[in-house]
Amino acid sequence: MTLLAIETSCDETSAAIVRDGFVLSNTVSSQVALHAEYGGVVPELAAREHLKNLLPVVRSVLGDAKVTANQLDAVAATLGPGLPTALLVGLKAAQAVAFALRKPFVGIHHHEAHLYSPWIGRGDHSLVANFSDFQPNVSLIVSGGHTLLVLVEKELKHRVLGSTIDDAAGECFDKTGKMMGLAYPAGPEIDRLAEQGSPKAFDFPRPLLHDASDDFSFSGLKTSVRYFLRDNPAILDDSQKICDLCASIQAAIVEVLVAKTIRAARRRNVRCITASGGVTCNRALRQELALACKKNGFALRLAEKSLCTDNAAMIGILAERKLAQKVPTTGLDEDIKPGWELA
Ligand code: KG4
Ligand code: ZN
User: Fold this and answer.
1) Are 164 and 342 within 8 A, CB to CB?
2) CA-closest residue to ligand 1 atom 24
């Protein structure tokens, strides 16, 4: 089966062609530079950019995969959650293609796609899904908008264990970075600066670390950084102290994410942990998760860095699995679901 997938839930315009588990092509056109000027994603601008970029991105994935529109067997797109006007662009375009080609359409939950992205690995020539290795797992989805722990009992069967009760982990990186004067999104820059700093230099709270639930909270950490900077403004004039601050904030976020993920997996008796979402690019998080999994005897599957952030490859791979398992297709009049919660 050859499938075209489209993802436009936030600020990346992405399309992919997948065929029988292989990602033949995957293009992501990022709007990060545009939104950086405003210090965050501006929904109206995001939608206009998707309108501008979608056709070139779809043309490029068809060309890269050497596939013509007439060879497509199905079309998929993200239904939600996400920014309403952004979602509309990708969904309605995908439904129009499915209508014109008279092919099935599959609407995908963005976070459900993240759950399976760690099972897409680098094959000899392209990215390829390897579900023959699949095993029950606890999956951490950690991005700018979400922080979720999900039990994936088997393929296409999952249950949310916990989520953030306030800010997402990526938001905490971005907002504390903004307080330090770093450009949006600050996560990658904090990651880079933290390499030169000491994670023990400053002691920040580890919210809900010992709480019995699988939920997260990051707004208290953000507030304590705000007060710390109010009381110690000279820190920002010292480049070494900025690195120490980045390392200390990062250490607090990573410790909570790792400890709660390991505990959730232990409690549910699974032997495997997976992680995806933009924050999974963070080097300290990847390293600490690997160490903790080794120590506790868990197999670890981290999404490929290129698939941690939003992409259509994961949408296409999940859509293909759903079609293969005879999950009902989605109507061409189906609407966007901006607030769709993962069950
Ligand atoms: O998944 P994503 O591209 O978009 C959504 O939020 O859906 O994630 C973006 C988030 C931003 O908050 C960004 O700062 C964070 O991921 N991020 C990082 C790193 N790379 C991206 N945070 C920490 N360290 C990184 N290396
Ligand atoms: Zn995402």
Assistant:
1) no
2) 282
Q: Is the CB of 279 under 6 A from ligand 1?
A: yes
Mean per-residue pLDDT, 113-121 = 98
Q: Is 188 in the pocket of ligand 1 (CB under 6 A)?
A: yes
State which H helix or E strand residue 135 sits in.
Answer: none
| 115-to-56, 182, 303 alpha-carbon distances in Å | 28, 30, 9
Residues in the chain: 343
310 lines ligand 1 (CB under 6 A): yes
Name which of 24, 104, 69 is nearest 319 in CA terms: 104
- Name the β-bridge partners of 275: 140, 302
Mutate to test the pocket of ligand 1, among 309, 310, 340, 342 (most ligand atoms within 8 A of CB): 309
H or E segment at 55? helix 43-65
145 lines ligand 1 (CB under 6 A): yes
The answer to whether 302 touches 273, Cβ cutoff 8 Å, is: no
Q: What is the pTM of this model?
A: 0.96
Gap between the Cα atoms of 325 and 295, Å rounded: 36
**CA-to-CA dists, residue 223 to 23, 226, 229, 263, 323, angstroms:** 42, 5, 10, 26, 46
Cβ contact 303:310 at 8 Å: no
Ligand 1 binding pocket mutation candidate from 14, 281, 289 (most atoms within 8 A of CB): 281
Picking from 60, 116, 85, the residue whose alpha carbon sits closest to that of residue 10 is 85
Encode pLDDT of 199-231 as tens digits: 999 999 999 999 999 999 999 999 999 999 999
Q: Beta strand pairing status for 272-276 and 299-302?
A: parallel
